[in-house]
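Dear support,

We are seeing what looks like truncated structure output for some complexes. This example has two components. We would appreciate it if you could run it in full and send us the complete C-alpha cell output so we can diff it against ours.
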Amino acid sequence: MNGAESALRTAAHAGIDVCFANPGTTELPFVAALEAVGAIRPVLGLFEGVCTGAADGYGRMTGRPALTLLHLGPGLANGLANLHNARRARTPVVNLVGDHATWHLAADPPLASDITSLARTVSTFVRTTRSASELSGDVAAAVAAACEPPGGVATLVVPADCQWEEAPGPPATPSPATGPAPVSEDAVGVAAKLLTGGSAVLLLGGPALHRPGLMAAGRVARATGCRLISEGFPARMERGAGLPPVERMGYFPEQVLGQLSGVTGIVLAGAAAPVAFFGYPSQPSSLVPTGADVCVLASPDQEVVGGLEALADALDAPNTGLTAELARPERPTGELSVATLGATVAHLLPEGAVVVDEAATSGVGYHHLSATAAPHTCLGLTGGAIGQGLPVATGAALACPDRPVVALQADGSAAYTLQALWTQARQSLDVTTVLCNNRSYRILQIEMARSGLAPDREAPAGLTDLSHPDIGWARLAEGFGVPAVSVDSADGLCRHLEAALGEGGPHLIEARL
Amino acid sequence: MNGAESALRTAAHAGIDVCFANPGTTELPFVAALEAVGAIRPVLGLFEGVCTGAADGYGRMTGRPALTLLHLGPGLANGLANLHNARRARTPVVNLVGDHATWHLAADPPLASDITSLARTVSTFVRTTRSASELSGDVAAAVAAACEPPGGVATLVVPADCQWEEAPGPPATPSPATGPAPVSEDAVGVAAKLLTGGSAVLLLGGPALHRPGLMAAGRVARATGCRLISEGFPARMERGAGLPPVERMGYFPEQVLGQLSGVTGIVLAGAAAPVAFFGYPSQPSSLVPTGADVCVLASPDQEVVGGLEALADALDAPNTGLTAELARPERPTGELSVATLGATVAHLLPEGAVVVDEAATSGVGYHHLSATAAPHTCLGLTGGAIGQGLPVATGAALACPDRPVVALQADGSAAYTLQALWTQARQSLDVTTVLCNNRSYRILQIEMARSGLAPDREAPAGLTDLSHPDIGWARLAEGFGVPAVSVDSADGLCRHLEAALGEGGPHLIEARL
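Here is the complete output from our reference environment:
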C-alpha cells in the first residue's frame, strides 16, 4: 500500500466520506487512491475556491470535515478566500495539498512556492509530511486538529513521493475526538445576574444558533426579558417558526450602535463582542455601548449549548421558551424589488430548506421575514470574502441530499466562483440559485456615498458598475449545465422558484432587480 | 490632498498608466483618487486573478508595471496564482492591497487576516504603509522595486486611514530606474570557448527571447553552429519568420534528456539550467546531461542582450545571423485536431499578433509551426499556475491596442479565470480566444498513464473528465458579453478565426477537439 492509500484509509476510518478535489500532477497518487479506497467520494471542482467553499458548506451542515485536494501553492492560493471564510465559521476542513517530491524542491521548478506560509494564514494546523510511512499518521493528526473545538482548518502539505512510495505497516488509527470544555459555574452566575438587571442582550454565535442552543436561549429570554441578538454573519443559524425570534446584528457601525443604544449588559454565548465590520472615520472599532458590562458565558471552544442550558436552569426558566409563529407573507405580485424578492422566498421556502445567504444588499427583504418563515437553516458569509455562496451551497447540498438548498446570491459575488454551478450540475444537486442581479457592486456605491468620497454618486461608476456589458446570468448557468431563466417581476420569480423547488436538481433564476 | 491621491500622483509620475482593480470598502479612497488624478486608467476585473494576470500581460508587453488594486487578504489571495506566474516571468507589477484602518486591526474584524505573509510568497518587495504622509514615498519605493532588474512583484499594503487622511507636502518623486548589471568579460570568454568546442547549446530565457536578444543569438549560432533552445515556458518570446529558429525545451524529463543527449556544453543567457517541471520516480531533477559543462553568460538580472551581443562580437560573428523563412501552412481542411488547429492558427496568424499560449496539450500543433509563421510575440505559462491565459491576453491587448491578440486556451485552464472575458468585452479588446475544448484535463490523463497509477486509463475519469456535463463555452462567453461560436471542423475554425481577426474586438471560438 502506498502512502496515499494508507492516508485515505485513515481518513475514511475517521469518518471522512467526501473529497472536494481539483488535482494536478503532484496529487495523482491520491487520485488513484480515492478510486482504490472507494469510501471517500471524489467531487471535482473546476476551480479550487469551489472545492474549499464546498468543504466549508459540507462541514457546517454535518459537523464533520471534508477533504479538499489541491495542487501546490497556486492551488491552495485559489482556495484561500473560502478557507478564510471557513476559518471565521470555525468549520472543520482538512486540506491535502500536494507538493513536489521532497528531493525535487531544491531544483526550484516553476511551480515551487512557499506553501506553508500560505496555509498558516487560514489554518490552525499546518504540517508537511516527511515520508510515506508518516503520511497516514499526519492525516490522523490533521483530522484531529480540524475537529478540535471549536473546529478549524487543518492543512497537510504532502510531497508527491510521500504519496507514491510504499507505506510499511497498517494505516494510522485516528484518535478519538475531544469534546469542548464545560462552562464554569461562575460564568453562569455572572451571566444570570447581568441578564436580570437593566437592559440586557444575550449575543449568540456558533452553536448557540443551532436548534438546541436557540431553544435554551429562548428559555433565557422568557425568564429574563433579555433580547436575543445573533452575530451579523452566522456560520449556521436555525431560523423560522417554532424557534425563538432572534434579531440580527446590523452591518454599519451606526446601525449597531442604534440597535444597542441603552443596553447595560451583554452576555456572549459563542459570539465575540460586537466590532465594526470596517473602520470608518469618526466611528469606533468596538460597538459595545459605553458603560455596558460584557461577560462571556461561553467562548466558541466551550460547551456553548450546555452553558445556555445551565444558564436557563439557573434562572429557573420555563421548559418552553419564546418561539416565533409561522407567518408566511402573501404571494407577492408586481415589481421585482429587494422587498418582493425576500417575500417570495419567505412565501415559498419549504420546511427544512437550507438558505445560503450571499445576497449582500439584495438579501435585506429575506432577513426581515426569515424569523417567521418555515423553519430552515441559514448559512452566512462569515469572513466577508465574497464568492462563498455558490460553493457553500454545493457542499451543503452534498451534505444534505434530502433538503432543498436555496442560494440567495448577489451578482457581484457570484462572479467570483460561478464555476460551482458546473459541480452542481455534475452531481445533480438540489440547489436553486436566486441570482439577485442589480448590475452593480451596490454596497460600494452605498459606501462611496456614506463616506463623502463621491459627492456625485455616479462619478466612480467605472469600478462599481456591472452593466457594461450586462452579464447574462442565465447563459452562464446554462453554459455550466444548470437550467436557467431570467425574470423581472415578482410573479415571474414566484412561478419559477416554485417550479424549481418542486422539480429538484440545480436551477438558476436570474432575478433582475 | 489625501494619501490615496498623493500616492497615485506619484505612480502616474513614475509612468504608471493603468490600474487593474477589484476594489472593496477598504480601497474606496483609491477608487475616488483614480477619478481625481485621471492619468491612470481604471480597468475593472470581476475576480482578482483577472486583475493580476492582466497586470502580468501588460507588464510583459510594455516592460512597465501596471497597478493592481485588491481588497485585503482574500482579494490578494484570489490574485496570488497569477502573481506566482508573474514572479516566474519576472514581470514588474505593483499591487496596492487595502487593509483595515490601522486602529481597527486590533478588533480582529471578520475580514482581517495576515496579508504580508501572503504577499511575501510572490513579492520581491512587501511593505505596510504606516501613515498617509508616508504613502506616496512607499509607492515610489514599490515601483522602484518592481522595476529593479530583472523585474518583480512589489506589494504595498495600505490601511484605509492612510488612504483617506490628509498627506501633507507634495507627492514623492519616483526614483530613476536602475539598469541591469553588465556581463563580465570573463563570462563572455568562457561562453565563447564552450560554444566553439563539442556539441553546444545556447539556452535562452528572459530578454534573450526578445527581438534584439534573438538576433544576437542568431549571430552566435551562425558563427559557432551551436543550437538555440528556449526555456520551456518563456514569459515573452518573439517568434516567426525573420527571426532565428529556436527549439523549445521539452516538457517531460525524458523528452528533455533526449533533446540534450550528447550535448557537452550549455551556455545560459537569461535562463536557468534545465530542471524537470515535476519530479517523477526514477527521473532526475536536473536535466543537464551527465558530464556537460554549464556556464552562465548572463543571469536574468544582468544585461542579457548586451551579453549576447558581446558574445557574438567576441566570436567575430557576421552581422546577420540565422533566420527562419516564412512558411505558412496551407489552409487546413477536414477534421479538427491538435495538428489542424495549430496549422489554422499558423496559416492565419497576422504579422505582429500576440499569441497567449495556455493551450497545454492542445497547443502542440501551433508550437511545431510557430517558428516559420508570420513574426509574432508568444507569451507562455511561466509558473505553471493555470488560469493565466485569458487574463494575460486581456492585459496584453490593453498594452498593445494596435496588435491583434490570439489566446490559445485549454478548456480546463480557461475555467479558472473565465471572468476575464467580461473585461475584454467591457474594454472592447481585440482578443480572439481559440478555446481548445477536449473536455478533459488531458495532461492528467497522460500523467496517470505514464505513471502506471491507472493501468486502466479510464478508471479515475471522475477527476480528469470534463464532459459531464459538457461545458458550453460559447454560452459562457456570450454570458460575459463576448460574441462566440462553436466549431468542430478545421474549415469552420479557419472561417471563423479569419472573420474574428478581420473584425477586431473580442471573440471566442470554441474548437471542439
